[in-house]
Amino acid sequence: MIVRASQLFLPTLRDAPADAEAASHKLLVRGGFIRQVGAGLWTFLPLGWRVHQKVVQIIREEINAIGGQEMLEPVLTPAELWETSGRVGIPIVFKLKDRYGRDFVLPFSHEETMTFHARELQSYKQLPQLWYHFSTKERDEPRPRGGLLRVREFIMKDSYSFDRDEAGLDRSFDAHKAAYERIWERCGLEAHYVVAESGIMGGRESSGFMAPAESGENTLVSCENGDYYADYDAARGIPRAPKFPEPLDQPDEVETPGVGTIEALAELLGIDPAATSKAMPVMVGERPVLALIRGDDRLNEEKLVTELGEAYRPMTDEEIRTVFGAGGGSLGPVAVTVDIVADEALREGQFVAGANRDGWHLRGVEAGRDYKPHFADIRQANAGDACPVCGGKLAEQTAIELGHIFKLGTFYSLRFGATFLDEDGEEKPLVMGSYGIGPARTMAAIVEQHHDERGIAWPRSVAPYDVHIVALPGTESHAEQAATALDEAGFDVLLDDRDARAGEKFADADLIGCPFRVTVGRKAAEDGTVDLRERARGEDDAVKVSELVSAVRGKMS
User: Fold this and answer.
1) What count of other Cβ atoms lies within 10 Å of the Cβ of residue 453?
2) CB 214 within 8 A of CB 448
């Protein structure tokens, strides 16, 4: 295929948008790949759509290879499906009414609709099933930014597995993990398989894939020894040991007037902030719960959602005083009647905690003896924590989340009554998995990892064209000859035949980033040679037009 730049909608720009910070944002706009319509809303121009669809095709081939069946579900979704799952109240869900007042949502994923259709599966003989689609998603993102990295509307490949038991789900999950790893390799991406949180998606377990990038929207936590990778929201770390005061036989009340922070409390009592505890009162529906972490730690909201099994909200001041009899700065776990979720770091030792009495705290509070919590990892891991695998030091770096895979279990099937008749004659709920990839975010990640000061350097698998031919004035016939030869050999060719200065054409070629550039200048008329350059290397080789095809193939091998 030969595409002529003189006929292509290719609005390249000299300067990046003033608000652009991410390299992918700057270069995709400057290169004429995308244009912004509104906050978090982007149009893919011809060049950008070619790249997007090449990423889509790689994903499609790999999901088909593990048994995926492609379909398409509507974006506009009856709200009752999301009411059934319990996710309709999530803040990022777009909600609307039709002219008759009926409620709908614009989903950010399609678990509800897929489970709705899965109710037609009747027997174990029909399992396993793997369904997927490429569908437009909507997300009421409060702070869209970073070009394609954080948007309000996007296309996602989401696939869904339906199995008869947990063992089957494990096989489906592992098959997707392997397929995703092949996708990243084919796209030329460095990506790490990481521990992740399920959060608002539901289910019992999830993992993600993250690509290191200077302008990432996520944080990758990794061990210095390379044996542990995790998303920031799911990372586990072992904090330093606290310096405890002498242990007490029972809690001892101490007056702490005007103390409103952990730092002030530690200073007043002359203790290590790590020897204090911090109370976070929340409401889970109508149920009050007290989350408890070490005083020098931060609560990880995603982990708490996963532990509770549903979303929560902070208690109001009025609710706090009604339940605990004190203000928020004096709360603790002793003698309370609500459920307590305590971080694992509080399992051993005695800590200072609120006395549930304004202006008072308790020394020597010990889990198990003075209160009976449910223990869970709900703290935010920090750089410098010890690795949970080998004890090495954890570090943080910016990254882009490329994909996420979830073991949903029966979270949705039980709510929707999606059951099947098993071999033993018993009716059982389908065991589900959910697996997502955003092609646009993948595209942005490729740019983040494959660019230089001149522009993008696309891997051939996703490049808009294989070869970019720059025709200098007076060489049009030789440029046509080169383009035709490459086209007949099966290469996609962008022929820059515009009436523009040579410098402008060269700058655009570097900016657009096709794997190979062929410059057709005066030497083509003199001795039949052109200059062949690999975009990633930046060096020209003089090649005879008659040998151009073999030269390109040789550089690809």
Assistant:
1) 5
2) yes
Does an H or E element contain 518, and which? strand 516-520
- Which residue, 503, 510, 428, 434, is CA-closest to 472? 503
Phi/psi of residue 389, nearest 5 degrees: -95, -50
Give the number of other Cβ atoms within 10 Å of residue 338's Cβ: 13
Closest CA to 58 of 491, 494, 434, 442: 442
Q: From residue 520, how far is each of 347, 432, 544 by CA, in Å?
A: 72, 56, 11
Query: Measured between alpha carbons, how far is 544 from 520 in angstroms, rounded to an integer?
Result: 11
Please, which residues have CB within 8 angstroms of residue 90's CB and are 6 or more apart in sequence? Answer: 200, 311
**434: closest CA among 263, 199, 276, 236?**
199
Q: Mind spelling out the 3-state secondary structure of 128-180? A: CEEEEEEEEEECCCCCCECCCCECCEEEEEEEEEEECCHHHHHHHHHHHHHHH
Tracing tokens 């609709």 back to the chain, one arrives at 113
Q: ∠ at Cα 75 (73, 78), nearest 5°? A: 95
Domains and CATH numbers, the chain: 23-236+395-448 (3.30.930.10), 252-376 (3.90.960.10), 465-556 (3.40.50.800)
Give the number of other CB atoms < 10 A from CB of residue 136.
12
Alpha-carbon distances of 73 from 236, 499, 541, rounded to whole Å = 37, 46, 50
Query: Could you tell me if residue 309 is left (phi over 0), alpha (psi between -120 and 50 degrees) or otherwise beta?
Result: left
Distance CA 229, CA 501 (A): 49
- Locus of tokens 């290590």: 272
In 52-152, which ranges are E strands?
69-70, 77-78, 94-97, 103-106, 129-138
Helix (H) or strand (E) holding 433: strand 431-437
Q: Are 428 and 419 in contact (CB under 8 A)?
A: yes
CB 402 within 8 A of CB 212: no
Any alpha helices (H) in 450-542, and if so which ranges? Answer: 476-488, 502-512, 522-527
Read off φ and ψ for residue 524, nearest 5 degrees.
-60, -40
Q: How many angstroms separate the CA atoms of 346 and 365, rounded?
A: 10
Is the omega angle on the peptide bond into residue 144 within 30 degrees of 0, that is, cis?
Answer: no
Tell me the C-alpha distance between 480 and 539, whole Å.
Answer: 23
- Residue 13: its pLDDT value, please? 97
Bridge partners, residue 421, by sequence:
123, 427
Give me the pLDDT at residue 216, please. 86
Pair 515, 460: CB distance under 8 Å: yes
Res 113: pLDDT: 98
**Token pair of 463, please?**
């490049």
Write a three-state SS string for 293-345: EECCCCECHHHHHHHHCCCCEECCHHHHHHHHCCCHHHCCCCCCCCEEEEEHH
Residues of the chain with pLDDT under 70: 198-204
- Which long-range contacts does 424-430 make (Cβ < 8 Å, 24+ apart)? 428/164, 430/115, 430/118, 430/121, 430/127, 430/162, 430/163, 430/164
Q: How many CA atoms lie within 13 A of 507 on its CB side?
A: 12
Specify the pLDDT at position 302.
87
